[in-house]
Amino acid sequence: MKKFYSKEENSWILYDWANSAYSIIITSAVFPIFYKSMASSAGVSDVDSTAYLGYTIAIATFILAMLNPILGTIADYRGLKKKFFTFFFVMGVIATALLAFIPGEQWQLLLIFYMISTVGFTGSIVFYDAFLVDVTTEERMNRISARGYSLGYIGSTIPFIISIAIIILSQKEIIPISPGVASKISFLITAVWWGLFTIPMFKDVHQRYYIEREPNPIANSFKRLGQTFKDIRKYRTLFLFLLAYFFYIDGVGTIISMATAYGTDMGISSTTLLIILFATQVVAAPFAILYGKFSDKFGAKKMLNVGIIVYIIVCIYAVFMKTALDFWILAMLVATSQGGIQALSRSYFARMIPKEKSNEFFGFYNIIGKFASIMGPLLLGVTAQITGHTSYGVFSLVILFIIGIAILARVPEQHGNEADLGNSKIV
């Protein structure tokens, strides 16, 4: 296997570097802390504000779950994949920038624009993932996918450090702005970083596999979508993998998106949370690469099992967490596996699908993930409100991982493309 990376591979990988700023600053770190602070100032309890955040994430994922399969099917037509990617990318960047201009006391409006930015961010990922088949070969997909996640973790530390520095300096009154304004500046930094480093993706990555355009594309897209459902049922390995993915990726996504809110409920200071999340990014980068390399040696399925087991340990450990040290330990456990499990899931699926229908199948792949992501935050939010303890909400996610690993055990180790559903056209 060649060691160097082509221009197309590097430009595709660089989008992980670009969008990772959103993942850490908006999804995981600064925005949740800022939102929790604003909601608390408005008299909303910690448990309720965490639940509302979970509900917002659930609504955003539901919207995407409804749109992705149809848009993905249409995007398989020649020349449309990049256009759909651009639409969601622009939506996400603009909504993220606008977060900086919403008055802090309007926490409900803050959640609305957060939801819009999440739709844009996650929607762009659908088409970005589908471009994996266009930029590399099947035997390199595990490594390229893992390298993307790894570079994303490394790249995210730069805007994150800048944002943390501005926030801490404002807290210590070294610079004449409030911590709230400092947080809003971090939202602008995220939008600029995301937009700037997406330029290579636009220049060098192109749709190589496609279906020729035909009359009545929307009607025909619905027909092809129906055929996709039949194809997925026909191919047992693909169907079982998607079913397993439905459960375990839900738990992964919920823990990533709700971790900071959980830490805040534990009484951990915002500064400590930011430092922990920074350390998590640093540790996650080499582990994502290791997952890619180990998958070449031991197989992607075995490494997926390792990642799921680590997350089961995380859910159980959450019940006994009491101190900041406990949160450090939990964060480092998550760091060892969060990138690897996502990267290998993406490449494992990409190797199983017909390349000229990559958007259609990745639309279905993502609808599975999005429908699952509705369940996880709702499960956490409802359990937390019923019990009065956020830790029990995190523990409830263990159910998803156990079901996921049990189904994955029935999936045979995948080698090559097992879903040859048509002739690929390459340009």
From TrEMBL:
CDD domains from the UniProt entry: MFS_YxiO_like
UniProt keyword Transmembrane present: yes
Protein localization: Cell membrane
Source taxon at top rank: Bacteria
InterPro entries: Atg22-like, ATG22/LtaA_families, MFS_dom, MFS_trans_sf
GO molecular function: transmembrane transporter activity
GO CC, any one term: plasma membrane
Protein name per the record: MFS transporter
